[in-house]
Write a structure and sequence with these properties.
The chain is an alpha+beta fold. The protein contains four helices and six strands; from the N terminus they run H-E-E-E-E-H-H-E-E-H.
Length: 153
């Protein structure tokens, strides 16, 4: 995928993210879009970036406590994260099955929930799919742990 194609797709998604008014600060640089989680008890960000295996959509936080509160919500609900992701997609009018979501700690010591999305289709189809998944990801995580609490202090 060319740099110009990536930039155009990210500009489209950035515009939709701003219009949705569910994120804090939104920045785009190179092949990456970062949207701050709005209302989270601790700093967290949603990131969308192109990779060799498709588009990577993630929620990242350096706060172990926030990551554990999300995990605890998942355990208490007895739903898999993919089931909750599917419900968020349905709420947005899509019957698409979500890809697997991995949870790990990255090299920068951040706690990451990440999924890989396919890059196939026209630019407009890819942009629409990525926009849908970004908004569903935010909607799902907003309901987990302390993602919808104002920061202390």
């Amino acid at each position: 995928m060319s740099t110009e194609t990536t930039s155009q797709i990210l500009r489209t998604i950035e515009s939709a993210a701003r219009e949705a008014r569910v994120f804090g600060a939104i920045t785009r640089s190179g092949g990456r879009l970062v949207c701050a989680a709005s209302g989270s008890a601790s700093a967290a960000e949603y990131a969308l970036e192109v990779g060799v295996d498709g588009w990577r959509l993630s929620l990242r936080t350096a706060d172990r406590w926030l990551s554990e509160s999300i995990e605890s919500s998942l355990v208490e609900s007895r739903d898999s994260i993919e089931d909750l992701f599917r419900e968020a997609l349905l709420d947005l009018g899509s019957k698409v099955d979500p890809p697997r979501v991995k949870h790990f700690r990255d090299d920068a010591k951040r706690y990451v929930f990440e999924t890989v999305l396919p890059a196939d289709g026209s630019d407009a189809e890819v942009a629409a799919r990525l926009q849908l998944f970004l908004l569903a990801f935010e909607s799902m995580f907003r309901l987990l742990g302390d993602m919808d609490s104002e920061p202390e202090g």
